[in-house]
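Researcher: Quick test of sequence recovery. Tokens follow.
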């Protein structure tokens, strides 16, 4: 497993363009969402904005993940990696549109199931809306919100938080090879989902080790962002580290999949 970690780190360091592309597209999405929030007034405009956002995200995902696959196959490609974006969009745009729709449906059903389970086990959360909004904005608001809770409410909130964390972990573990499966082997997003899940549960122990490592990295990223919130310069540096580690995690998943599951030839296509 250490070889996977080291190899993914080397690929990420040689292809920092991956992190740069991620930052660039997220900036574009932020601008688009900000623009849409001020210009959308009707249901038709909202629907068109949603479809546009779906296409933007699908185009980015197909191009960016294909960049990652290209870097994993040839970690010395350098700046030529940018030329792989049109190929990725051309090959996988439809796959990511379908995957986004499937994910939205699954997320809605899964989320409803988690809410039902939490309500059944722990009851409905009932907090002051103003204090809750304040808690989402600043550390001071969060402190004020927590101080307003009774012991019973704190236990209830802790139970809900644990349930949500476990739910996210389970879904993330089950879905972590879905995208690599699409790019390496199965363009059909539904079939790719099924095959990727089967791969995980066919030999779950190595996948669990990999996932545990990713959880630790995610904790580090969250800790850095939390510590850096009070200082703008530190927050900026923490965001750079966040994008770098996010890129590293994706490279790690693709590299692990390519070496353990894909059976790819030099062109990156699956060899049956």
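Model:
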């Amino acid at each position: 497993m250490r070889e996977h970690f080291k190899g993914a780190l080397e690929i990420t360091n040689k292809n920092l363009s991956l992190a740069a592309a991620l930052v660039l597209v997220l900036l574009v999405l932020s601008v688009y969402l900000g623009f849409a929030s001020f210009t959308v007034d009707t249901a038709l405009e909202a629907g068109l904005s949603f479809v546009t956002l779906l296409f933007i995200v699908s185009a980015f995902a197909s191009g960016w993940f294909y960049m990652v696959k290209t870097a994993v196959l040839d970690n010395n490609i350098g700046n030529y990696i940018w030329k792989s974006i049109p190929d990725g969009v051309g090959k996988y745009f439809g796959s990511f549109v379908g995957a986004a729709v499937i994910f939205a449906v699954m997320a809605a059903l899964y989320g409803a199931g988690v809410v039902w389970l939490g309500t059944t086990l722990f009851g409905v959360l009932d907090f002051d809306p103003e204090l809750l909004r304040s808690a989402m904005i600043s550390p001071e608001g969060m402190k004020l919100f927590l101080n307003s809770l009774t012991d019973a409410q704190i236990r209830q909130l802790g139970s809900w938080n644990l349930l949500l964390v476990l739910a996210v972990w389970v879904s993330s573990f089950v879905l972590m090879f879905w995208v690599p499966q699409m790019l390496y082997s199965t363009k059909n997003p539904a079939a790719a989902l099924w095959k990727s899940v089967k791969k995980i549960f066919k030999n779950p122990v190595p996948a669990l080790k990999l996932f545990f490592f990713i959880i630790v990295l995610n904790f580090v990223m969250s800790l850095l962002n939390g510590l850096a919130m009070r200082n703008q310069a530190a927050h900026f540096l923490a965001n750079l580290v966040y994008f770098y580690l996010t890129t590293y995690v994706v490279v790690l998943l693709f590299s692990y999949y390519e070496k353990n599951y894909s059976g790819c030839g030099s062109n990156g296509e699956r060899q049956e």
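The chain is about 85% helix and 0% strand.
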